[in-house]
């Protein structure tokens, strides 16, 4: 007659994987929402803004102005469009590697925003004119200037990327780790044995 396993035995591994599954699920959900929002607004811009003058919103604080960008912000790198898909594939690979130890929900949101934004512009690079992997990105939002001379014309994918990176910087500065731990907690735990030895 074999002894029954202790209560909770066999559940440690599955329990440990639950935070990762939740975080990865949130990452994928945020990236999918960001991607679909970007693709939808681009199609709407192509349908409604093609051939039109810039549309002023909020008293001129925001303009809707359809442009096609072969480079990055302010058309930087416009003569080397093929480079941007390569960079994007590197970013996607980095996010996939990060997801292997991802436990933090805030980091999942950050990485999801970056992934969704990167995929949104990558689709333009691959499938839009003038050709595969050299396609021009559809932009339509400009701040304070209808023609993007003061601030570059951008799209929701760009906004998603910027928000994701800003959130990542904030998380790093506040010591929040991708595995769900906090740097300050780790330092405090490491210092605790030394303090206990000194008080003994």
From TrEMBL:
<feature type="active site">
    <location>
        <position position="158"/>
    </location>
</feature>
<keyword id="KW-0812">Transmembrane</keyword>
<feature type="transmembrane region" description="Helical">
    <location>
        <begin position="82"/>
        <end position="100"/>
    </location>
</feature>
<comment type="similarity">
    <text>Belongs to the peptidase A8 family.</text>
</comment>
<comment type="pathway">
    <text>Protein modification; lipoprotein biosynthesis (signal peptide cleavage).</text>
</comment>
<feature type="transmembrane region" description="Helical">
    <location>
        <begin position="153"/>
        <end position="174"/>
    </location>
</feature>
<keyword id="KW-1133">Transmembrane helix</keyword>
<feature type="active site">
    <location>
        <position position="139"/>
    </location>
</feature>
<dbReference type="InterPro" id="IPR001872">
    <property type="entry name" value="Peptidase_A8"/>
</dbReference>
<keyword id="KW-0472">Membrane</keyword>
<dbReference type="Pfam" id="PF01252">
    <property type="entry name" value="Peptidase_A8"/>
</dbReference>
<dbReference type="GO" id="GO:0006508">
    <property type="term" value="P:proteolysis"/>
</dbReference>
<dbReference type="GO" id="GO:0004190">
    <property type="term" value="F:aspartic-type endopeptidase activity"/>
</dbReference>
<keyword id="KW-0645">Protease</keyword>
<feature type="transmembrane region" description="Helical">
    <location>
        <begin position="107"/>
        <end position="123"/>
    </location>
</feature>
<dbReference type="GO" id="GO:0005886">
    <property type="term" value="C:plasma membrane"/>
</dbReference>
<keyword id="KW-0064">Aspartyl protease</keyword>
<protein>
    <recommendedName>
        <fullName>Lipoprotein signal peptidase</fullName>
        <ecNumber>3.4.23.36</ecNumber>
    </recommendedName>
</protein>
<comment type="function">
    <text>This protein specifically catalyzes the removal of signal peptides from prolipoproteins.</text>
</comment>
<keyword id="KW-1003">Cell membrane</keyword>
<keyword id="KW-0378">Hydrolase</keyword>
């Amino acid at each position: 007659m074999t002894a029954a396993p202790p209560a909770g035995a066999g559940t440690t591994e599955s329990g440990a994987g639950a935070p990762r599954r939740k975080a990865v699920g949130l990452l994928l959900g945020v990236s999918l929402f960001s991607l679909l929002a970007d693709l939808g607004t681009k199609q709407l811009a192509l349908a409604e803004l093609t051939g039109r003058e810039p549309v002023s919103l909020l008293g001129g604080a925001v303009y809707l102005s359809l442009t096609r960008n072969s480079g990055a912000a302010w058309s930087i790198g416009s003569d080397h469009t093929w480079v941007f898909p390569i960079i994007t594939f590197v970013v996607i690979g980095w996010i996939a590697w990060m997801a292997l130890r991802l436990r933090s929900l805030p980091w999942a949101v950050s990485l999801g925003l970056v992934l969704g934004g990167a995929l949104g512009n990558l689709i333009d690079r691959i499938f839009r004119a003038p050709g595969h992997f050299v396609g021009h990105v559809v932009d339509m939002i400009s701040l304070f200037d209808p023609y993007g001379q003061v601030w570059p014309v951008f799209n929701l994918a760009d906004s998603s990327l910027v928000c994701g990176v800003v959130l990542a910087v904030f998380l790093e500065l506040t010591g929040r780790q991708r595995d769900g731990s906090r740097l300050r907690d780790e330092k405090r735990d490491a210092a605790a044995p030394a303090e206990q030895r000194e008080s003994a």
